[in-house]
Write a structure and sequence with these properties.
With about 425 residues, this protein is of the alpha/beta class. It has twelve helices and 24 strands. The longest helix is centred in the N-terminal third of the chain and has 17 residues. The chain binds flavin-adenine dinucleotide (FAD). The site of flavin-adenine dinucleotide has 36 residues, from helix 6, helix 10 and helix 12.
Length: about 425
Amino acid sequence: MNERIRYINAAEFEEEIKKGEPIALDFYSTECPPCEALAAKFESLSEIYGDDVKFLKIFRQENRPLAEKLGVTSSPTLIFFNNGKEVAERLSGGIKRTEVVAGIESMMTAERASELRKKIVPVTEECDVLIIGGGPAGITAGIYSAQAKLKTILVDIALPGGQVTTTHMVSNYPGFIKPVEGFMLTHFMNEQAKEAGVIFRSAVDVSDVDLVNKKLIVDGFETITAKKIIIATGSSYRELGIPGEREYKGRGISYCATCDAKYYGDKHVVVIGGGNSAVEESLFITKFAGRLTIVHQFDKLQANKEAQEKAFSNKKIDFIFEHEPRSFKKQPDGSMIIEIENLKNSSLREIKADGVFIFAGMKPNTGLFNESLKIDDQGYIITDAYMRTNIPGVYAAGDVIQKPYRQITTSVSDGTIAAITAERELDN
Ligand SMILES: Cc1cc2nc3c(=O)[nH]c(=O)nc-3n(C[C@H](O)[C@H](O)[C@H](O)COP(=O)(O)OP(=O)(O)OC[C@H]3O[C@@H](n4cnc5c(N)ncnc54)[C@H](O)[C@@H]3O)c2cc1C
């Protein structure tokens, strides 16, 4: 830790606030991966902005009354103060360097900010294997690669864990007799990777990926070069692309039941979709919601039989088949109006709900990669059985590749194969 960062307690915070100087205050906890991800950024930014802004850290567990007074409920939470008052956007979770910079620079003039930015020195880090994406595929590749004593760096634009982090319960991953919380499963995976020696760059911005020359840029200033690259960027929720969807995303429209179902206690929720995710997540949502309507484009559900049976026998769930949503609107009272079209006769009608969950399938995260990477017409990367792509020394694994089944186990398997192949071909 450098000298520009100071650890304080609640009493010292009150003294600091009285001085009215610009402050970046990090409420942190121990055994907290997002806190560790922020710590590295906090440290490097303190070198640049530390003369103008005080970089303070406070241990949340030992300063609970202050945390409660300030409304801090999770770690890390980064708060900016100027002239004794909170300013800028409060940050928490997987905090990006650019977000911290925005908070810090809001407390100084544009001229001063631009002057200080000149102090940023580009750095280069070399490694044997660079893994892009830290879901089950990337983490497994990391474990194998690091255990083979290869210098392994894993970059992720979010906190590692991938889709599993937001999966409520996983019941089909071997090694756990009872269903395990997705969040805990990824926690175990991450800790194992860390233990193996994987170097993480979490919640970073990734740009300028050059697969042929094996390098990419992290947070605009760190170039990582590698002998081999494994792409494990997974997939993301597919949007419907209809009016109101983007506008109300996070404000009535959600793609993640684990994250948002709790806000709908005893309320009416509409779920769009009828596949495995839609039906399984609907069952979870009914633990909170009072009523749930599944709107599905086909005349029957596509989910597995067990999930279908549970849904049909759940008294809170009703179904509207052969309908598709056409727009979302929000009422002044906060409720959502979902316009749906009957696909048989094209008639339109509106249904009212308190919230909407969309489970319309997934799309591969391949937008970052250049055209020389061979992908199929859906955007999935084409690999051979050894997870090699068409670019020598570049492998791909997990949901991002073209394959029939996308599960945690299949991603873990792909990650294993990619890492072993990369290691065997290291000197090629
Ligand atoms: C709601 C839901 C429930 C599910 N339930 C189950 C289940 O019960 N059992 C099961 O086996 N499977 C389940 N799955 C599927 C399973 O989660 C996926 O198959 C698995 O997570 C895929 O792993 P992955 O590593 O390939 O990709 P992901 O899990 O998608 O991880 C990809 C990672 O790459 C990162 N990333 C993306 N773009 C970039 C970039 N440009 N640069 C750097 N990093 C990037 C992401 O932040 C993410 O961390 C479920 C999926 C969903 C959505």
